[in-house]
Each structure stands twice: as C-alpha cells, then as structure tokens.
Amino acid sequence: MLDRLMADLIVVLHFVFIAFAIGGGLLVLRWRRVMYLHLPCVGWAVLVELMHWHCPLTRWENYFIDRYGAVGYDGGFLDHYLLPIIYPDGLTPAIQVGIGLFVLAVNVTVYGIVAAQARAHRRRRRLATAPTPSAAPSSDAVAGSGTSYSTT
Fold this sequence. Notes:
The protein has seven helices and no strands. The chain is an all-alpha fold.
C-alpha cells in the first residue's frame, strides 16, 4: 500500500515539476524570488530533453510500481503519461529536442519580459530620485547674483 502511494505521489510530483518548468516563469512575473527555484528546474528540464536523459523521477516511479506488484514502464514520464495523448506515435529524438526547445523558448520569452520590467523599474526609480534642473541653482546664477561668499 505504501509503495503504491509513493509511486502515485512521485507521478504527481513529476507532473508538477514539468508544469513548473514550462510555466513557472509566469509566477516569476509576479514573485521575482521564485526565479531562484525556477531557473534550475528549467535548466534540468531542457538538459534532460536535449540530451535524451531519463529523469530520476521516472526511475523512482518504476521502482515503487515494481515493489507494489504492477508492471513498470519503459521510457520516460512523457513517453508513458503525456505523449500518448499529445503524440500518439511515441517520442522520437526530434520530438524530444522540440520539447526541450519549446521549454527553452517559453522561458526565454518570459525572462525577457522580466528583464524589461526590471529595466523599466530601475529607470523609473532613477528618474524619481534625480534632481530636477530648476530645483538646484546653477553656478552661474549664484555667481551673477552679486553676493560674495567667503571661504574663511
């Protein structure tokens, strides 16, 4: 019973990880600190897809599935759970590279927006704290006022 629960829990965790790697950048638009968790997830997801690696979560899923007596599956999480829905013919290396590039493109776009927002925020802050030209008298105005200032 515990093995079945662990297998199911890992499948859910695996799905959440994939969803976070693809769409977590949208959370970064709202909460910038999520970036420190999201960027490593994106890096890992892209590497796994582009390098054709098997995710360790797949191995753990299969381990617990085998322990509770069911038959594990070959391939990765995407092969077993998602690709039969999205790509019924199965995962090919070209599709796997496409998935990796899709994850990368989504996140490059989102982080481009994050960077543009950060630049705009810095620009607004700099303009808000910069003195206006009319607020400080110029050196010519002080010199031409006829007032003499002594340094002693």
